[in-house]
Each structure stands twice: as C-alpha cells, then as structure tokens.
Design a protein that fits this description.
The structure holds two protein chains of two kinds. Chain A has helices at residues 18-34, 44-64, 70-83, 88-115, 124-147, 151-165, 173-176, 186-210, 223-239, 261-264, 267-271, 275-295, 316-320, 353-357, 381-397, 438-446, 467-475, 500-519, 523-537, and strands spanning 256-257, 305-306, 326-330, 339-343, 374-375, 408-413, 425-430, 451-456, 492-496. Helix content of chain A is 51%, strand content 7%. The longest helix of chain B has 34 residues, at 4-37. Chain B has helices spanning 4-37, 72-77, and strands at 43-44, 50-59, 68-69, 86-87, 95-101, 104-111, 122-131, 135-142, 152-158, 165-171, 176-179. Classes of the chains: A alpha/beta, B alpha+beta. Strand 1 (256-257) of chain A pairs antiparallel with strand 1 of chain B, so a sheet runs across the interface.
C-alpha cells in the first residue's frame, strides 16, 4: 500500500518555543482535571470579564453605604465590616478578592498570549488595546484602597502623590493635600470616589474596544467556572474578611502595612525614594508592550482573496470569519447578486475559515479550473482536491484486496499534532480545520476512502478562535455549509489533537473501527465508491 | 467481559474522584494565593525606632531685583494706561532652604520658581526617616535673592516618638518657618 503525502500549504507555522510547550503541557494537565470547557487557563479573557462584573456588583452595593467624607469614609467602611458582616461586610470582601483575582487573571491572560506569540500580525490591535487595560485596572484597584482612608490609604496617598510629583505640572501641590488633616476636604473624597467609579468605566470601555475585532467574543466563562468563581470568592471572603487597618493619621506613619501586592506592588519603590525609577520602568514596559507586535513580527501568510466570478454574495464568509476581516459591499461587477465579499487584508488571519464556509468550495463541481468564491492563495481548494485525489489514487493503485487496515484521509490543523502519513493514511494539512468544506469529507468517502479523520488543534483553544467549533457544527448539520445527511457519520471522526500520543491513539481507534462500518454498507455502495474514485483519477 | 465492566466502572469512578479532588485542591490553592497576597507579606515602611521628617513648602519668593523708579520723561512716552511709577521684574527669587539636624546638615537646596518666566511659586518636598527621640532642628530659609544669607531662621527641639511625623513648612502669613 502506498501512504498519502504530507502537503505543505506554504503557511509558515511558527514553531512553539520551550515556554509555549511548557504552558501547553500545563493546560493539557489542567484539561484532565477541569475538563476542557471548565479549564480556567483557556478562558482567561472571559474570566476577566466575569470577575469585573462581580467586582462591579459588589462595588455598587458597598458604594450605596459609603460616606464620601473625611470623617465618614473610614467609619462607614468599618460599620459595613463590623455591623453588617453578612451583607455589606461580605460584599466588601467579595469586592476585594474579585478585584485581586481580576488582576491575576489579567496578568495571566497577557502572559499566555505572550508565550503563545499571539500579539503580532492581525492580532496587533487586541494586543495594543490590551496594554492600557493593565494600567486602568491597577489605577482602579489603587483608587479603591484610597477610599477606605486607613493607614494603608495614607501610605497610598503619600506614595501616589510623591510618584506624580516627579512629573512636570504636578509638583508638590498634590502632596500637600495629604500633609496635615486640616488640608483635607470632603470634596477631595468626592473626587476620589468619582475616580473610583470613572476609571472602572473607562476600563470597561477599554475592554469593549479590546474585543472589537473579534467576531462573537467570549465574554462569559463556562457556567461551571462562572459559578465556581463566585463560590470561591464568597468562601474566601468568609474565611478571611477584608479588614481596614488603623484609621489614617497624617501626624503618624504606621511601621507595618498589610499591602495588597496585586495592586500596590510598585508603591514600595516610591516609598524607598525612587519615583523616577518607577516612571522609567512604567514607561519602558508600556513602550515595550505596545511595540512588541512590530519588534517581533510574525510571518504573514497571504490574506484571503475573493474571486467575484464564484462569489454570489451569500455572506457565509462574513458570518464565519472570527476576526471580522470579511465585509459585504454592494456588487461591483454588474452581476445580479446584491452584494460581494471584500477582504480587509490587515484583519485577515489567513485561517481559511471563510473558504470553508463558501458554498462554491465543493469539490464535486465539474469545472475545468476549480476555484472558490473566497480562496486562500497558499492553499487553493483546487490544489487540495488534487492532493486528495492523488492520495486516493495511491490507495487505489495498491492492491486493496490485500489491505489489512482501512484507508483514511486525514485533514489536519497545522497548529495541532499532525498524524504521520503511512500506508493507507493520507494527511492533508490545513491552516485551520475550519477551512475544510464538509463536501470534501463526502467527496473523499465517495471516492473510496474508508474514513475521514479531522485532526483539530486543542479543544477550546483553536488557534483561530472558532475553526474547530464551526467545522463541528457543519459536520453535525447545524451550520451551513453542512455535511449531507446521507453521509455515514460513523466514517467521519473529528478529534482534538493536542499531543502526539492522543492523536495517534484516536486515529488508530477510528481506523480499527472502520472496516466494520464499511462492511455494513451494501456491496454496491462500495463498488460505486470505487468506480467514482477511478473516474475522478482521470479528471 | 463481565469482569472488565465493573473494572471499567471503578476506573471511571476513580477518574471522576481524581478530577473532583484535583479541582478542589487547585481552586483552594488559588484562593489561598489570592488571600495571602491580599495582605501578606507585610511591608515595613519605617523602622521600629524611626520617625519621619517631612519638609514641604510652596512659596512665591520675593522679586529677583529691586524695582526701578521711572522718570517723568519715560512715563510720558508710555501709554496713559500703563504709566506705573515703578518698573518691577516679574522673575521671583529662588528659595534657598537649609536644614540641620543636631548640627549636621540635612538639606541645603535651592528651589527654583515655577513658570517659563520664573514668576511662580517655588515648591519643595523632601521626606527622610530620622531616629526617634530628641533632636535639635535648625531650619534656615531665604526667599529673597537681594539678601545675603538667610532671611528666616528657626530652631526647635523636637522629640518624636517612633512613627511620628515632624513637618517643616513655611508660611509667610504665619510668621515664616513652621515646625509641627
């Protein structure tokens, strides 16, 4: 028997670095514990939104009881904690711990995208728009601690005003607000409360901007994870309620402080007399993060190309593109269709999901030059069909009567663990399995392949956000273009192939079960399939 | 087969227990991580036997030079609405501050007036930990470039307890240097 050939799509897949492999291993291990849908590491962005809303709801509750005056601020917070421990006190603690978890999740989200090198190319916008969120998040948290007006708030007031005093235009005027109690006014506390509401609103606006270029962004974590997060926050609040430190006294400085290191980690640097250093680090980190997409550019595969002769303006590519790179405009070529697809090349991820969604991507078309309405130049559908036919011809040229295992066409994501080609197994690689039109599955089966195996990358973490989900929906008949109902689903397998062993095991299991499935078919169907395959070889 | 099925069920139950236990442990670890670093480790901002000395002022210095009397001829050449008898410079004097603690110099700095024309107030801020206990504090202040040396001087014995803030301020309306 002949083995299928591994095709090169010309798509330059970035090799994973050691950190990425390590993180990938950790995520796989956590998948085993939480299950893929419940794995927090795979939903950090959505978890960030969830924690933001927990902090918002609890914050609104305690703000209703907060007194924005010098004398009333501390007293009102103490009243919440001591007189209403099961309501306002609990909400105060939930507010604190949800905010702390938000800071951790935000940092992990950044590090994860950094390790997986998801910051350049078409992703630059999400990356760059995420940078201000770091500072807004920190500012919101610091401002919250300020409002309590205890010893910690006094430390924060001194450190923050000393930090800003280095900047031209601020000077020592801000510091002098917090020198003696006489200079403090209730109006200042109203301003601080306003900032603690305004900055999170800006943060929310920034979060909205951050996900603008993503189609159907996931802003709510899996239900189990969402509930568990709330439960953990409440349990932690009960186990260790948030407490104030001694009331602020500007004539004294507390020797020891219980710092919230998630938000206040940088302020000791100012306390040690290095506000300039902190500004230097802040500006350098900001510039580095913002410039990273251009400092470490990704190799860019060609963007999708629309072929108007084959585009009927149906809009499926527009609907399925995960990054909103396809827009629909009025027809420009005079054909009777109302609209045509146009690719915004700067936004295109070169995943090919649009080509997989295009109804003209069916290999059953009997045109001389098989082209689709929207095509990936590096992986045209015509070439994919030729590769498939070549592989099937290889199977057919071998003596099938002596075959010992079923023949399988594997459509594999370049970002997952691709099975090795071997006798009876042809492997065709795609930038994303979302590029696979379901009609190719039927085509392969009708051409005589015993089974079709789709090797997607890691479940819940598609390199292009939703390619595996879209294909699964198409194969299940839940999304157009769908796999025809007449196709025997037991001859089709879609597996998540995050590691080599799992991939090979899934393929072997599927292949082992195939002959029985094939045997169940009427003999005529098998013969018809082989005849179809032979006829295709002469095209 | 009949033996394999219970074994498979036992294995599935064991795996489920492992997953639940793993989740509980990992969520607990995360909660402990959040709970601990929300207040710990504690930060020491001042030594146990230290007090804090803060110098802060914002004060517009005197004009940098004397006003000049305008002559009648000069005034006559000026528009009627601008005939001020004196021509005074806008620029203000820098503020020179010297602080001595127990006879040892602590600060000796000159703070420039703010503004492009240097006609704003000079402002200064310094913070320094000092040992608690009795100290002799001497503060000298010059806000007039036309005066040699210092035109304000104040000495005071302070005896801060650990953690106490000693504030040096300046207010011309309140008599000059203030030590609180």
């Amino acid at each position: 028997m002949m083995g299928g050939s591994v095709s090169s799509t010309g798509h330059d897949v970035k090799p994973a670095n050691a950190a990425a492999r390590l993180l990938h291993g950790v995520e796989r291990a956590l998948d085993g514990v939480f299950g893929v849908p419940g794995n927090p590491l795979r939903q950090l962005g959505a978890l960030g939104f969830h924690l933001f809303w927990i902090a918002t709801v609890s914050g609104v509750y305690i703000y209703a009881l907060f007194d924005t005056s010098i004398t009333g601020a501390y007293a009102s917070v103490e009243t919440m904690t001591t007189a209403q421990p099961w309501s306002a006190g609990l909400m105060r603690s939930v507010h604190r711990y949800a905010s702390d978890a938000f800071a951790v999740v935000m940092l992990l989200h950044l590090l994860r995208e950094l390790v997986y090198a998801r910051f350049s190319g078409f992703r630059w916008y999400a990356w760059v728009s995420g940078v201000p969120l770091l500072w807004l998040g920190l500012a919101a948290g610091i401002g919250g601690y300020w409002l309590v007006w205890d010893g910690l708030a006094q430390f924060i007031a001194t450190a923050v005003t000393e930090w800003f005093a280095v900047l031209p235009g601020f000077g020592v005027t801000m510091i002098r607000n917090f020198l003696v109690t006489d200079t403090l006014t209730d109006r200042l506390f109203s301003l601080l409360a306003f900032l603690h509401i305004g900055i999170p609103l800006l943060l929310l606006l920034g979060m909205w901007v951050h996900i603008q270029r993503i189609t159907d962004p996931v802003t709510a974590p899996h239900r189990v994870l969402a509930v568990t997060t709330v439960v953990i926050t409440v349990l932690l609040s009960l186990a260790q309620p948030a407490l104030s430190q001694a009331p602020a006294d500007l004539s004294r400085v507390p020797e020891w402080l219980g710092l919230d290191w998630f938000y206040l980690f940088a302020l000791p640097l100012v306390n040690r007399g290095m506000p300039g250093t902190l500004w230097l680090l802040t500006v350098a980190a900001t510039l580095l993060l913002v410039a990273l997409p251009w400092l470490v550019p990704s190799s860019r595969a060609p963007a999708a190309v629309v072929d108007l002769a084959n585009c009927n303006g149906c809009g499926r590519c527009f609907t399925d593109c995960p990054y909103g790179a396809v827009i629909m405009l009025p027809r420009s070529d005079g054909r009777r269709h109302a609209r045509e697809a146009v690719v915004e090349t700067d936004l295109c991820a070169s995943c090919g999901i649009c080509a997989g969604a295009c109804p003209s991507s069916t290999p059953f078309r009997s045109v001389t030059l098989f082209r689709t309405g929207i095509e990936m130049p590096q992986r045209p559908m015509g070439a994919l069909r030729e590769e498939l036919e070549l592989a099937i011809k290889g199977f057919d040229d071998a003596d099938l009567s002596r075959k010992t295992a079923a023949t399988v066409a594997v459509f594999a994501c370049e970002h997952g663990e691709c099975p090795a080609p071997r006798d009876g197994v042809a492997v065709l690689r795609l930038p994303c399995v979302g590029m696979l039109p379901p009609s190719f599955v039927e085509y392969a089966l009708r051409a005589g392949v015993d089974g079709v195996f789709v090797a997607a990358c890691s479940d819940g973490d598609c390199e292009f956000k939703s390619g595996d989900t879209l294909l699964r929906q198409r194969l299940a008949g839940e999304r157009e273009p769908s796999l025809r109902a007449s196709v025997a689903l037991e001859r089709v397998c879609m597996a998540q192939c995050a590691d080599v062993a799992a991939t090979e095991w899934a393929l072997a299991e599927f292949r082992a079960g195939l002959p029985a499935a094939l045997d169940q078919q009427p003999a005529g169907a098998v013969l018809a399939a082989k005849a179809f395959a032979r006829s295709r070889h002469h095209v | 087969m009949s033996e394999q099925k219970p074994a498979a069920q036992v294995g599935a139950h064991a795996a489920a227990i492992f997953r639940w236990a793993g989740q509980v442990v990992l969520y607990a670890l995360f909660a402990i991580f959040i709970g601990y670093f929300a207040t710990q480790p504690r930060y020491r901002q001042l030594g146990s036997d230290e007090a804090l000395l803060r110098l802060s002022f914002t004060h517009p210095g005197q004009i940098i030079a004397n006003c000049r009397e305008r002559g009648a001829e000069e005034l006559a050449k000026m528009p009627a609405n601008m005939r001020e008898a004196q021509d005074c410079p806008r620029e203000r004097s820098p503020v020179h501050v010297r602080v001595e603690l127990d006879g040892a110099p602590l600060y000796d700095e000159v703070f420039s007036p703010a503004g492009l024309r240097r006609d704003g107030a000079a402002a200064g801020y310094r913070r320094l930990a000092i040992s608690a206990g009795e100290h002799r504090l001497k503060v000298e202040f010059n806000d007039d470039a036309r005066v040699n040396g210092f035109n304000y001087e104040h000495s005071q014995t302070v005896n801060p307890v650990p953690g106490q803030v000693v504030l040096i301020d300046f207010s011309a309306e309140r008599g000059g240097i203030q030590i609180k």
